[in-house]
Amino acid sequence: MAHNSTRARLQQLTNQVSSSAMASPFSVDVVPQAPEDPLFGLMAAYREDTSDKKVDLGIGAYRDNNAKPWILPVVKKADEIIHKDPEVNHEYLPIAGLAQFTSASQKLIVSGDSPAIKEGRITSLQTVSGTGAVHLGALFLAKFYQKVYPKTALYMSNPTWANHHQIFSNVGLSLQSYPYWHPQTRALDFDGMKASLESAPDHSIILLHACAHNPTGVDPTPEQWSSIATIMKRKSHFPFFDCAYQGFASGDLAKDNFAIRHFIEQGFELLIAQSYAKNFGLYGERAGCFHFVAAPSSDAGERTKRVGSQLAILQRSEISNPPAYGARIASLVLNDKALFSEWEANLRTMSGRIIDMRKALRGKLEDLKTPGKWNHITDQIGMFSFTGLTEGQVAKLRADGHIYMTKNGRISMAGLNTKNVEYVATQIDKVVRDTE
C-alpha cells in the first residue's frame, strides 16, 4: 500500500515537472506567424500553375531565349580548370576570404588605378553574396557609426529592393526613405530625391544603388550623380553603395561603376556591397564582397586597418569563414586576362539580350497602340522594368493571362524571349484597355 502511494506521488511530481517544462515563452503574441516572402510566394504560385501559356516575369535571375538558366561559358571553363587542379582542397578560407578574390574585386569595383587602392585605403571581406555584404555593412554601421551619431537614420530609395528593409531594421537602424520613382513620368524623381537629401539631418546614411536600380531600372545620369555627390558632401552624408549588377546593366563594367568611382574621387568615406550572383550567374554559390573605403587623410591607412579588424570580428561571429567555390571561379576569371575578356563578352551577351527584349516589348505595345506611353521600358536599364501597371492590373494579368510579376508592376526582362514577348504585350494591352 505504501509502495503504491509512493509511486503515485512520484507520478504526480513527474506530471507537474513535465507540465512546467512544456510551457513555451514563444506564444503567438511573442512570435506571430510571419508573412510569406512575396517573391518566393510568387515563384511557388508560378510552379503550381498548369497552364502552357504561363510566363514568369518575377524571377530575379537571367534566362536565355529558351527560358532556361544560362551557365556562362567562361564559368564553365573556370570550373573545369578548378576541377583539374590537384592543389584544390576543401579547407577553410581565412575569415576575410580568398585574398586573390577580394583584391581583384577591389580593382573591379573602384578601378585598378584608383588612389584608394594605391594608398591602402580599402579593406575588403568576402561575403555570402551581396545580401551578406549588405548585412555586414549594416552590422558595422549599427555598432560603430551610431556611437558617433546615435540618432542617425538610414535613407533608402522609395522603392528599393524589399530585403533592404529587413536587413537594416533587423540590426536596429532607424529607416527613412527618399523619393526615387516618379509615377507620372515613370522616371527618376530627381527633384524629390535632391530635396530629401537636402532636408535629411547632417551625417545621415544614404543607401544608393550603383547601377540598374532594383526594382525600377531607373538610374541617375552621370551629371545627376555629380549633383547627388555635391549635396551629400555639403551635408556630410555617409554613402553606402549596393552594387549587384556591374557589367550586367549596360555590358560595360566601367560605365556601371561610374557612381562609385566618382564618389571616391570626391573624397567620400563609404561602404560598398558587391555581388557576383547576376554578372557571373553564380546565384547559388553566394559569392560577394564587402568594401570599406577610407577618405583621404594622414591616418587613412591606420583607420582602414582598425576597421578591417572589427569587420573580421563581425564576420567571425556571423559565418566564421565564407564559402570557397564561387569565389574561386570568380577569382580565376578576374585574374586571368583571356578569361576576363571572355567574361566581358558573356556580359555583353546577357545585357544585349535584355536590351533587345526591352525594344521588342515596347515596340509591340506601341504597334498595338496600347493606351499610355511606353518609352520608359527602353529608357530603363538592367534586369528589371517598373512597368507602371497597377496592382489590380497585375492581379488580372495573373488570373487571366497566367503572367506572373510582383504586385508593384516590376517585371524581370530576363523572363521575356522571342517566343513569349508578343503574348505578354497582347495581354498587357488587353488588361490596360479593360481597366482604363
TrEMBL record:
GO cellular component term, pick one: cytosol
A single GO BP: aspartate biosynthetic process
Annotated Aminotransferase class I/classII large domain residues: 53-428
GO molecular-function terms, A-Z: L-aspartate:2-oxoglutarate aminotransferase activity; pyridoxal phosphate binding
Cofactor(s) in the UniProt record: pyridoxal 5'-phosphate
Protein EC: 2.6.1.1
Alphabetic keyword roster: Aminotransferase, Pyridoxal phosphate, Transferase
Reaction(s) the record says it catalyses: L-aspartate + 2-oxoglutarate = oxaloacetate + L-glutamate
Domain of life per record: Eukaryota
Broad EC category: transferase
CDD domains: AAT_like
Description of how the protein assembles with itself and partners: Homodimer.
Other facts noted in the record for this chain: In eukaryotes there are cytoplasmic, mitochondrial and chloroplastic isozymes.
Family per record: Belongs to the class-I pyridoxal-phosphate-dependent aminotransferase family.
Protein name per Swiss-Prot or TrEMBL: Aspartate aminotransferase
Natural source organism: Microthyrium microscopicum
Lineage of the species this protein comes from: Eukaryota, Fungi, Dikarya, Ascomycota, Pezizomycotina
